[in-house]
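Q: What structure does this chain adopt?
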Amino acid sequence: MNQQTTRRTPYPGIEPYESGMLDVGDGQRLYWECSGNPAGVPVLFVHGGPGGGTTPAHRRMFDPTAYRIILVDQRGCGRSTPHVADGADLAVNTTWLLVADLERLRAALGVERWLVFGGSWGTTLALAYAQEHPEHVRGLVLRGIFLCRPSEIDWFYRGGAAHLFPDAWEGYLAPLLVSDGAGAVHRPGYDHVAAYHRLLHCGDHAIELAAARAWTTWETSTSTLLPRPDTGRDDDEADRFALAFARIENHYFTHDAFLDGRAILDRMDRISHLPAVIVHGRYDVVCPVANAWQLHAVWPGSDLHIVPDAGHAMAEPGTTHHLLEATDRFRP
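A:
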């Protein structure tokens, strides 16, 4: 039997049996939901972005008979309120506030220890959370490692990845060329992330939306080896998503993810005893595979699967297969 026919596919779609809005202070209320088995092993899904939000597809990465599947939308996005598209205050949206939010959710749901599953930015947040609260983590499943170092932001948002996707990069540059002109944009040392920050908060809705669309399209068009999927969002929904996604990501990347000297790799001693499965696509352009290699090298309890025919997206068949194998491994 060939590799294609033996790969795992997600579990059938399910609906939540419980959901709510958690007040975490600062005027923020987070949407959360539980699906699967109420008496099962708790597993927390940490979404990407930052600003990506959760979707029903995320429930399908776990055996619903074995897991209590917990999804939460981080501050300012998804179904959490206030939404960034509605003017939510980004000053109260930082890595360590999100870590505190996850810990509040754990306590509110009566969870003692949970498996933590994260992808892309979700790996950054999952690792930061685990390093702060290792006593409440039974293990981690991580896909598309993002350590949020300045070199990684430079690679993807300041021109490195443009060498592989010059056509998509042209679309990313378009709002910047309109705003700043070719002379400035192509000058060495030009800061694309800072320029986008200015456009995304300029006060002109048309300019902000054009910038948000271009920022978001750059990431979605480079994140998978598969054809770009139809998200099912209508135009208004897509624009609302883009505004939150672009503004929140840019906010974090402008501030070095608010890690405040607490770099992920420097604190691995806090969780080196925890088991982990790392899954990373060989052709991941958004988060290069070197990130996963470096994390695995300093984590004795981790297993690394480099998927030979995958990019960044969770939905790519080889990546999905290894993630499902990983979550099954942590079942009781």
